[in-house]
Design brief:
Layout (H helix, E strand, L loop, with lengths): L2 E2 L7 E5 L2 E5 L12 H10 L4 H27 L19 H13 L3 H17 L1 H8 L5 H10 L6 H16 L6 H15 L1 H11 L4 E6 L5 E6 L2 H15 L10 H14 L20 H5 L6 E2 L2 H4 L7 E3 L3 E3 L1 H8 L19 E2 L2 E5 L1 H11 L15 E4 L19 E4 L1 H9 L4 E6 L5 E6 L4 E6 L37 H19 L16
Parallel strand pairs: 1-15
Antiparallel strand pairs: 2-3, 4-5, 6-7, 7-8, 9-10, 11-12, 13-14, 14-15
Helix pairs in contact: 2-3, 2-4, 2-5, 3-4, 4-5, 5-7, 6-8, 7-8, 10-11
Length: 528
Amino acid sequence: MNTMLEAQSGAAVTVEDGMLHIRLALPDCGDSSTDDAALLVFAAVGDKLNGPLMWHRYQAAYTLWQRKVDAASTALDGREVVGPGRFDCFTRVYDPMCQTAASFAAVAGVRQTTAENFVDRAISCMERIPAIGRLMRDGVLIPLWFHAALAQTEGVVDDDVLAAIDVEAADRLRSAGALSKARVIEIVAAVVAEHDSEAARVAREAAKPRKRVAVEPVNPELSDLKITASVEDVTLARKSVDAVANGVCGKDPRTKQERRSDAAIALLTGALFACECDDPECSAREGVDTAAQCATVVLHAIARRETLTGESDLPAYLDGYGPISADHVRDIAARSDTVVRDLDLGELLDHTSQPSDGYRPTATCATAVRAVHGRCTHPGCDMPAWNCDLDHVVEYDHDNPAAGGATCPCNLNPKCRFHHGLKTFVNGWVDDQIVDANGVIWTEVTTPEGVTVRSRALNGWLLPELGLIPCRHDDAPSTSRPVEEAAPRRGMTRTSAKHRYRMSIRAYNRRRGVGDTVVGRQWGEPPF
């Protein structure tokens, strides 16, 4: 059985006779014949029903707030006007927002600030971005995604511009297929950057004085070092830290975050960063060549030529960050350490794979594929495209390249190493890529349970012509094969990892003398 995620049976939210009815087919977990897809869909998408419920909650809070506004205005009846020493109902401490939130806080059992945030979001849902809000009502967005979309529009002050952003962003979100928080943020951010470029420029100028370095204590042993800088510089710094941290061998006993911390301090202080393994043959034990590792770091920004020349204000896309304004990418292009290369999609009409190796895409093809998808194409994954492998959706046939698995944009997409390995080593995972009649590129991922999730290429707005370029599939005979790898294995089982993690917590608590309660330490994500 193959079930499209968007068409799960039995899910519905309706309003009948003043009652909100939520219906979702409940699978019988005690029945061995219950379909696996039904179990997976119920567990995975039940959260989407929170969207309609939250929208109606917001509507109720908004209506209550509006009534208090009307009541306050009626009570004033023109006798109290704004002026020297005079105030209207919105300038009082106990204004309609405060009163509504106070009642909400009392009934919901939350703090006043929490209640005011709720009422403020309710007002925004009904007044600022109603079209995006209705996506929550219709089950397209869960509340978390709506809040992320709302945050992207907070800086827009022009009502007419905001209305245009609201409608276009809602249309893109509704037609995007499977969504995640990262995809929602980038879709809305691209629309905001396109329609409100002046606000983006003002925001960038206002942000410059906020560059700073701050130190905040975590506990008696550790402190946080926080550096605030431009998004491109921070992204480059993060990539440099990762490059140095990855310079050690696989036997290094430190966690990934510990290696990152040590690598960052080594880069800032000029100290030695070395592998801490016990292997006498490890070349990194004497120190990682940080200059050589950082020399491999490249930050990719994709922009239309007319954006760089100033003829257009279409946003650009910064790998690892997301959409940036036209002014921002022009500033990046003007930096002395930036290399600008033309991407001529017309080259794809001639060939998409290297002339001597049909398995390898050309530089133009690889760049276009990474740019149009932006992230790992597995639903829910936000790994940047340039940190991903380029996967042949239909496997490349090295013995007979003409038999299928072409090296071209219609059959290539980025997958992070984990999800690439999942497809390769776990039976039942199937993916497909479709280009519709309008040139829109869609990816489909089907789980072993038979549930199919469909997603639209994230940056189709940036390269809309890519899906309209006809693919010739005339790959050259292959002269290379990828190295056959064994399925990756864990260093220890999840049970062993949990046991070690819990023992470390207990040991820490005993040293602190606080019994079995974790106090005063940030443990981070468990390593299992």
